[in-house]
Design a protein that fits this description.
The protein is mostly helical. Helices cover 72% and strands 0% of the residues. The chain has 35 helices and no strands. The N and C termini lie far apart (99 Å). It comes from Salix purpurea. This is PROTEIN NPG1. Keywords: TPR repeat.
């Protein structure tokens, strides 16, 4: 009998029988096969019983009609409605009515393991039938696509019910079973015949998207990561919108979950292709894929993608890469102010200060950009590092304060701190003493105002307060702030220990200073001990412990060499540290050469200088150490040439200016005004250099045209500065 004739004969009775069947299932009555078997082509089902009573007596007609239509569809395809399908329909009905517990009770009556194996076999067989005809020996027909969709939907609704009841781990396990079933049945991905079933594809989309969320709720981050990777690597035939949503959620999870993900184990991988090694790299890869999708107009622009990418690239030290990504964005996607701000921060992070400052200048020049406080503060910070731009930086900080209008004390505190730093920098370049003292007083006033505006104490402000007081030789106040800073940071900052040790050394408390450094060394990892060891060596030199200083420098150089090798070549994250290592190593060789020179160990000093030359052939400090070596040997002309070479490399190198003046004075080959010029230039650049003041006093004393009072003032300044001089510059 054809389906058309069968429907004509029995179709009018199907709705009534289905209605009766579902009514019996809800009421808990036994469904009798006699009622369903009035002919040889009757509806086939199995006896069953339901162990609970329905909470709602009334039935929504629209919902029940949809379920009956679903049953009719199954009947038309297979000719019968089995036990699992009947439970799937009833469970869906209860779920749609909001009876989650009742729906879960119905779904639990379905043998999921048995159903999964049937679905797996049916899907595998359907896939095989695309290539060859079904064998005549196949007696058991495969399940219809409608039945497969119905049962998978039942499992998915069970997952949603478990989720609604807070049983997240059980929900995740059930959801995983859906994906396991499909993946094991179709290991090569969904063929067109399967993916064309809209309902099945919709269930898969929802299951793939839901599984990682369930694992997160269950507190299993590693399982969530595996689920995300599975969603993206297996061919689920997801639409672009769903895939992009999963990629973004996965990237966010990798960045902020605090869980370390192991590198993905890819089943198929092109040779030399990039495999992310950690969370950050994997998140960056996902976000770059999303940017490419936007570039080819597959997805709409989502500004949060750029926010997350900015964070990921910044923490991995890839600011230049971030700048390139921003520059590649089409015009109009990002506002001009936002684009310029991000680019300026990127180049500032890369050390390209002038590029960053020029970008900010272009932005701040336009008065149509109101409320640019952040940009003004960044510009002010950059200017503080460049003597040429100090005046400009002060104007930016003042403008930021005027735009704040007292709205945010925290931002005002930052602006005051920057202005204090800028005024301090400016004070070191002014000509007159009165103006210098005025600028220094203003600088301290600004820093104290910044401290008062903070809700909680800011270590940066305390540090600069201590530093500025130390520079002005207010050592008691400087020591007070330095101790406060160390307590505030709980000894976590190397620079705080070094500043405290330098202040103590300026008070000639060398033993206390060395104890501070030793404490810092005990609490600091080997890789961060470089500056501490150099300070310790200088403290030992100040105490006349030259042999101990040589051992300390040797230890320092050994640590630097091991650390340089461990950083490896080509790692952008380590490039700033490698530069710092190179600079520290070079200065250590120079210091060690000077120690050997003072011990008259010429050969050892020469070896140290040759080591330094391999690091940087053009170093003013190296030429100066070379000049000191020649001077110690009594080779004054060679020493003079070395000092001049240092000044050719760095015209404002203060030690070379002073040493040149000393050699010229001893040789007597130059006039007093020329020698005085070298010394006054040195004092102009560093007013706290006691050696320059002392030698200027000697020059005035030897010059008949100069007054004794001038010489006395120079000697007095030299004595005061020497008594309060640290073993190395406070800055």
């Amino acid at each position: 009998m054809t389906l058309k004739k069968w429907m004509k004969r029995w179709g009018l009775g199907i709705r009534g029988k289905l209605w009766k069947m579902m009514k019996c299932m809800r009421s808990g009555e036994q469904l009798r096969l006699d009622d369903m078997a009035s002919s040889s082509e009757s509806l086939a089902t199995r006896d069953y019983s339901v162990s609970y009573s329905s909470q709602a007596a009334g039935v929504d007609t629209k919902v029940e009609n949809s379920n009956i239509e679903e049953a009719e569809s199954s009947l038309r395809e297979s000719g019968y409605l089995n036990y699992e399908e009947a439970r799937a329909l009833l469970g869906r009905l209860e779920y749609q009515k909001g009876n989650i517990e009742a729906a879960l009770h119905v779904f639990e009556g379905i043998d999921i393991a048995s159903v999964s194996s049937k679905i797996k076999a049916s899907l595998s067989r359907r896939c095989e039938q695309q290539n060859r005809r079904r064998s005549q020996s196949d007696t058991a027909p495969p399940m219809s696509m409608h039945a497969i969709s119905l049962l998978l939907e039942a499992i998915f609704l069970k997952v949603k019910s478990l989720q609604g009841l807070g049983l997240f781990e059980e929900a995740a396990q059930s959801c995983k079973m859906i994906l396991d079933t499909i993946e094991s049945a179709l290991p090569e991905g969904l063929p067109e015949s399967v993916s064309s079933d809209c309902k099945l594809q919709d269930i898969l989309n929802k299951a793939v998207e839901l599984l990682p969320e369930l694992w997160k709720l269950a507190g299993s981050p590693q399982e969530a990561i595996l689920s995300y990777r599975r969603a993206l690597l297996y061919y689920w035939n997801l639409d672009t919108e769903t895939t992009s949503k999963i990629e973004k959620e996965f990237a966010v999870f990798l960045l902020y979950s605090g869980c370390d993900a192991s590198p993905p184990n890819l089943r198929s991988q092109v040779e030399e292709s990039f495999v992310p090694r950690n969370n950050i790299e994997e998140a960056i890869l996902l976000l770059l894929i999303l940017l490419r999708k936007f570039a080819v107009k597959k997805i709409e622009w989502d500004p949060t993608i750029m926010y997350h990418l900015s964070f990921a690239l910044s923490v991995s030290g890839e600011q230049r890469t971030l700048a390139h990504q921003v520059e590649e964005l089409l015009p109009g996607i990002m506002e001009r102010r936002e684009r310029y701000s991000i680019l300026a921060l990127c180049y500032h992070g890369e050390g390209e200060e002038m590029i960053a400052l020029n970008l900010l200048r272009n932005l701040l020049r336009n008065r149509g950009n109101p409320d640019c406080v952040l940009e003004l503060l960044v510009a002010s910070k950059i200017c503080a590092k460049n003597m040429v731009c100090v005046e400009e930086g002060i104007s930016y900080a003042s403008r930021a304060l005027s735009e704040l209008h007292g709205r945010c004390n925290q931002m005002a505190s930052v602006a005051n701190r920057l202005q204090g730093i800028l005024l301090s920098t400016q004070s070191r370049s002014v000509a007159s003493d009165s103006e210098r003292i005025s600028k220094q007083s203003e600088a301290l006033e600004m820093l104290e105002r910044a401290e008062k505006l903070t809700i909680e104490r800011d270590p940066s402000i305390i540090f600069h307060l201590s530093l500025e007081n130390a520079e002005q030789r207010k050592l008691d106040a400087a020591l007070h702030h330095a101790k406060q800073l160390l307590k505030l940071e709980a000894g976590s900052s190397v620079r705080s220990y070094i500043l405290l040790a330098r202040i103590l050394s300026a008070q000639k408390r060398f033993v206390d200073a060395e104890n501070v450094i030793n404490t810092a060394l005990d609490q600091t990892g080997k890789w961060d001990q470089g500056e501490l060891l150099r300070t310790k060596a200088k403290l030992q030199i100040a105490q006349g412990q030259l042999k101990n200083a040589i051992e300390t420098y040797t230890r320092l150089l050994a640590i630097i060499q091991v650390r340089t090798k461990s950083l490896g070549a080509g790692k952008n994250l380590a490039k700033n540290r490698r530069h710092s290592n190179r600079s520290l190593e070079m200065e250590a060789w120079h210091d060690l050469a000077n120690v050997y020179t003072s011990l008259s160990q010429w050969r050892d000093a020469e070896v140290c200088l040759s080591k330094s030359k391999t690091l940087s052939p053009y170093s003013a400090s190296r030429w100066h150490s070379t000049g000191l070596l020649y001077e110690a040997k009594g080779l004054h002309q060679e020493a003079l040439k070395a000092f001049k070479a240092a000044l050719d490399v760095e015209p404002n190198h203060v030690p070379s200016l002073v040493s040149t003046a000393c050699v010229l004075r001893r040789l007597g080959s130059q006039s007093i005004p020329i020698i005085r010029t070298f010394l006054t230039d040195a004092i102009r650049l560093d007013k706290t250099n006691h050696s320059a003041w002392y030698n200027l006093g000697l020059l005035y004393k030897a010059d008949p045209s100069s007054s004794v009072l001038e010489a006395a003032e120079c000697f007095e300044a030299a004595a005061f500065l020497e008594d309060s001089a640290p073993v190395e510059s406070f800055r």
